[in-house]
Design a protein that fits this description.
Helix content is about 50%, strand content about 10%. It is mostly helical. Strands 1-2-3 form a three-stranded antiparallel sheet. The protein has a two-stranded antiparallel ribbon with strand order 4-5. It has a two-stranded antiparallel sheet with strand order 6-7.
Length: about 250
Amino acid sequence: MGKAIDILANEYDDIKNGYTQTADSFKCLFCDKEFEKGLIYRHEDQYYEARRYVRVHIETVHESVFEALVKMDKKITGLSEHQSELLRCFYNKLQDQQIQQKLEIGSISTVRNHRFAMKEKEKQAKLYLALTALIRENENAPKKFIQPHETATMIDDRYKITEDENAKILKKYFPEELNGRLSTFYIKEKCKIVVLRHISEKFEKNRQYTEKEVNEILKNIFDDYPVLRRYLIEYGFMDRKDDCSAYWMK
């Protein structure tokens, strides 16, 4: 079982070929025997370079790549004995009537249905392989960060915030609901950016507010509303006139 799992850990093309390749050798997947590149190997008075000889080895010792794979434990292949025998018949190019007689299947149409089902499974397997490949690519892809607001005063590591981080921070500091009150603003700088960005959405763009109007909006979010107002300006979300007669979102 362990060896079979090792085989399936390889890439699709390597499994289909029955061997893997390193910088120095070719290695049989089914018995781990290695054949060094640059050496010549002899088999029945014929001489082969390493790549060709590993194929000869598989055909001689393991019958074929197909046979070695189809013989694997059904817990690994997912194939019943009947399905394995059908695949052997297909691989050996037997006609439907020959398969019907060999496996004592009810009718030739039943064999045809098996052929059709095999082609459908092949299509499904291709789709599944594509999906899992995309999952791996996404897992290995660089993390996607939320774009900093265009008017940020100084962009640094504080702005490296993923969508997941953003959601977790908001849930933590707005525990009742996102439109509710802020639990505290005595938090890390990265968290402040997330919180302030969320608060900034309470204000309309292209509109000027009086200081009183700004305070009324912020009072509903946090008791210490002057500190929120100050940080909205400091972090570049909001701007104001020098005499504080008007405030607006930048």
